Amino acid sequence: MENKEPLIITDKDDMRRWSRSARAQGKIVGFVPTMGYLHEGHLSLVQECKQHSDLTVVSIYVNPGQFSPNEDLSTYPLDFIGDINKLKNKAGGVDVVFHPKDLYDYGKYDGVVNARSNGLEEGKVVSCVENSGQGHETWVRVQKLEKGLCGSSRPVFFKGVATIVTKLFNLVEPDVAVFGKKDYQQWRIIERMVRDLDFGIKIIGAELLRDPDGLAKSSRNVHLSPEQRKKLISYWDSASQTWSMELNLQATSISESLFHARTAAQKGQVVCRELKDLVIKTIHEAGGKVDYAEIVDQESLEVLDEIKSPAVFCIAVWFGNVRLLDNVEIAV
Amino acid sequence: MENKEPLIITDKDDMRRWSRSARAQGKIVGFVPTMGYLHEGHLSLVQECKQHSDLTVVSIYVNPGQFSPNEDLSTYPLDFIGDINKLKNKAGGVDVVFHPKDLYDYGKYDGVVNARSNGLEEGKVVSCVENSGQGHETWVRVQKLEKGLCGSSRPVFFKGVATIVTKLFNLVEPDVAVFGKKDYQQWRIIERMVRDLDFGIKIIGAELLRDPDGLAKSSRNVHLSPEQRKKLISYWDSASQTWSMELNLQATSISESLFHARTAAQKGQVVCRELKDLVIKTIHEAGGKVDYAEIVDQESLEVLDEIKSPAVFCIAVWFGNVRLLDNVEIAV
């Protein structure tokens, strides 16, 4: 149904009631968790979800549990009305938008427990939730997959993700949930968590979507100026004695260099060190600061020295104060 | 219905299918997780469960995830046929006994991931599951409540309990689950986990049951000899110049001394140090080795110096190689 107004649910119990009622009618409930500020990438997850379900729930909730106190929770972009319109007009409508206020607020202020939260364990990584002292103290950890890649530079991120996804699964009680392969490590972590904790939910990984210039779609792209994506620069060509123009790749150097590495690997260049060096050099010259660039096994996310089995080249890059993720799968 | 044969389910998918079918018929599903070797205490949990549900599921599964490699997994008592008979004859019948074989076996041997499990994090506590290398790597932790009391001497215990209960909740999908207050810390941890992870399950804490001699009922009591519970000793009474008999409390000194402490507290003796010293001394004289004896807040399990609010005196004691738990709630 096109242009359908979604039912907006903000209350936990209402959400579960809706879902159980849908299930009791034999409907397959599909779920796409998001942090809002929706773009075509999210909408493609919704489309994917609809292929596998009768009814679709999209959650819009910026999860404080996956941000460290020094990360960009406060500047994370929000546009709830715009999101609803996109879901209504571009994705052909969804059934429910679950938009809870605070999923870590349990109503009762528990003074004794909170008093203890000051005495955090040594070496303990702190999320915005632990800092706000709401008494929440249960965390889900996927101990091996959460290491490395984004886990290295964002120590609370995946425990925050695994925990909020568990909470959302328990509230929405879906049959199917869709995660983007843009966040490759996240997708694998959720798959593993669902297996290890025996959730009765099928996880689908949806392909990464790119802008026409190759940049992977992300809510954070809004912070990039046009010049930070790519820009034309003019220079004096002494050979031809004329002014000339050149396209200076900036953020788009990420995807360009990844595609180049994939092609090289498919042509037989399978030594990861050399593939990585090339990508890092290209992005560095374009003005980016590489947070990590790793070629890992597609399932275990084990770092590879040589590409012998299905691999994925995962990268995180800072352009200015914007951190961008990208990856390409490499089948050899 | 008396003497009802329970349906025995061993397969994960069959369990979930049964539960969803029951729910679709509007039935309230109640759940009692156990590790088997059932005694009157478990049967009282089943009775409690029936007060709150239309259909009752009891799981019998010895969870390797809550044992350290040096703990008593291999000698944990088993009696599946006896358990089924008790459930049939003494508890008035249950609907389902869920008896899975191995809840950490995911079918596929994942060599790459397992290879990494040798390089466990520093200071990481290892459970029998991590040691068996089945690729399971997701753990649920209730970070504050799992500290102290049993958590101090059994470092993997509560992460194992929280994780297996999450798995069982996801497989059985009950509306109500019953936990015994005999395992007081466990009950509070499950309550908190259910709140923090938004499980749609009501948790009920059932009262501790005691044998006529006062000993808290436990599967591990089977390892105690009659003499380790209490014994009569004869001695020469020099005052009366006769042989006399005296009841020498051993394991039963635990409950005796706890009751005594509760009475003292209710009479105004609220300094925890003194109450604890008395209990420790009594048990020590009876031949027991106190693992811990703490008076804590009933909800936060925060250690108390003085009893000013509802408290619980929790204790763990070794008699020989049997570790016994007990507790009394103290309302002042």
TrEMBL record, chains A, B:
It catalyses: (R)-pantoate + beta-alanine + ATP = (R)-pantothenate + AMP + diphosphate + H(+). InterPro entries: Cyt_trans-like, Pantoate_ligase, Pantoate_ligase_C, Rossmann-like_a/b/a_fold. Pathway: Cofactor biosynthesis; (R)-pantothenate biosynthesis; (R)-pantothenate from (R)-pantoate and beta-alanine: step 1/1. Keywords: ATP-binding, Cytoplasm, Ligase, Nucleotide-binding, Pantothenate biosynthesis. The keyword Hydrolase does not apply. One of its GO terms (cellular component) is cytosol. It is an enzyme of class 6 (ligase). GO terms for biological process: pantothenate biosynthetic process. One of its GO terms (molecular function) is pantoate-beta-alanine ligase activity. PANTHER family: CYTIDYLATE KINASE/PANTOATE-BETA-ALANINE LIGASE, PANTOATE--BETA-ALANINE LIGASE. Belongs to the pantothenate synthetase family. This is Pantoate--beta-alanine ligase. It comes from Salvia splendens (Scarlet sage).
